[in-house]
Amino acid sequence: MNIQSSFFFDFFYDNFKLHKRTTMNIQNYIGGALVNPSSNLFLDNFNPAIGKVYSYIPNSEKEDIQNAYKAAKNAFSAWSKTSKEGRFKVMMRIAELIEERHDELALAESIDNGKPVKLAQQVDIPRAASNIRFFATAILHFASESHDMDGVAINYTLRKPIGVVGCISPWNLPLYLFTWKIAPALAAGNTVIAKPSEITPMTAYLFSKICIEAGLPAGVLNIVHGLGVKVGAAITEHPGIKAISFTGGTETGKAIAKVAAPMFKKLSLELGGKNPNVIFADCDFDNALRTSVMSSFANQGQICLCGSRIFVERPIYEKFKTAFVEKVSKLKVGDPNDSNSNLGALVSKQHLEKVLGYINLAKEEGGTILTGGNQIHLEGKLANGNYLAPTVIEGLSFDCRTNQEEIFGPVVTIMPFDTEEEVLSYANSTQYGLAATVWTQDVTKANRMAANLESGIVWVNCWLVRDLRTPFGGVKNSGVGREGGFNALNFFTEQTNVCVKL
Ligand code: NAD
After folding, report:
1. Superfamily of domain 275-469
2. Do residues 71 and 63 lie in contact, with contact meaning Cβ atoms separated by under 8 Å?
3. What is the pTM of this model?
4. Greatest CA separation found in the chain?
5. Per-residue pLDDT tens over the stretch 181-238
6. Which listed residue (167, 211, 283, 304) is catalytic?
């Protein structure tokens, strides 16, 4: 594709390079059309790399959710009866179009979120296409059970789409996590009302254009932009929306559960984390070191799976710490559009302030900053961007607030341990249980650790290696339910057992 000829590429490129103020309005996607919010009011959308408004987001209301609901309800009968092959075909076309627009979408994601464009090119956009393709094909292989009662009767299980479902997603991996939810919902025959984060709405908007071009029938997917407390809450409260798949913070998850539980909605909640990265003395040192830099600071540390608490076995503690700090201090924080930047901008001023607040708290709690700890002021057009040096903190107790609360930025703590029991008690001490990483060459120890860690996901000698068929989700306050593979298709279907007397 010649990206130079694309309208969107020109728009983003001009905007990014020249930071021209434009009046581009994002629109909702309801009933197959791009429409303004009923209020006709818009919110500012910032480019975090330059700290300037570059587009406007629909400030939608309950009424827009009601319009989306009507469209989704009307579309449900035909879409749920569309053959699996038919759903597969249109979804595969969507995946193809994502790939055709790869460069444009990656640039849009980088501008909207502040992440290095290189990361969006290598991870966010390819994985968005994979999510759609994976569930488009998975539905062709989705089967239900039968139970034979020795000649008396036979039971079989029908798996039916639920109806209109809600998908609410966060800002850290915008298109990636958006597609991770809507793809299984659509493949299973539901119609969807989706709400992307108001902080990063752009790629969901571009995605709605892709859906129109791919020929997704009107009303099958509806994307309503706006504030969580208005639009997200309106989805949660709507009596006709029978299932909610949510990814975001634990406090928001609690608020959603409080409203949805008395209405007996199906709920899938993927929430926060405070993930341990456990490094034993017998690890492959270089691999553990290299990967820990990535697992700490990829996407400016704004991945729910990042390891934010590094525990190192005492015999290698000093060696690991020195090498880690040296590598981290060489990471380049800079223009997200520069392919040499390792870290771009944090997603918003408010989030930068929050992360800086935690660095101050760490100091108050007795922590020593080994590297970073400061905001970075870049020059020229980037002078107002939200940049923070990757930060490593030592000397904190495992149970202080810095080590218990989710920071969700480029900040990690590092501390030594002496025994397996000790590190397990540190690792399991938080309210969270999303992901953990273990580094050791001893396979028995690795398996023992994996079994005893309170975590939905454990990586051994690797990080962020993802097979889309595997269960994805957290324990404790990191969530309820599992996404991934047939788990997601199970979530987005209702079962009916049919018992036939023979
Ligand atoms: P958030 O909870 O603030 O927002 C997530 C989404 O919920 C947004 O679309 C927001 O508009 C909406 N929302 C806000 N208030 C709402 C309400 N009252 N009712 C309904 N919807 C509402 O989270 P965030 O700041 O966008 O994302 C960061 C958080 O997400 C972190 O805690 C991170 O760990 C978590 N996260 C978890 C996973 C996972 O898979 N477990 C993945 C990515 C991010």
Report:
1. Aldehyde Dehydrogenase; Chain A, domain 2 (3.40.309.10)
2. no
3. 0.95
4. 79
5. 999 999 999 999 999 999 999 999 999 999 999 999 999 999 999 999 999 999 999 9
6. 304
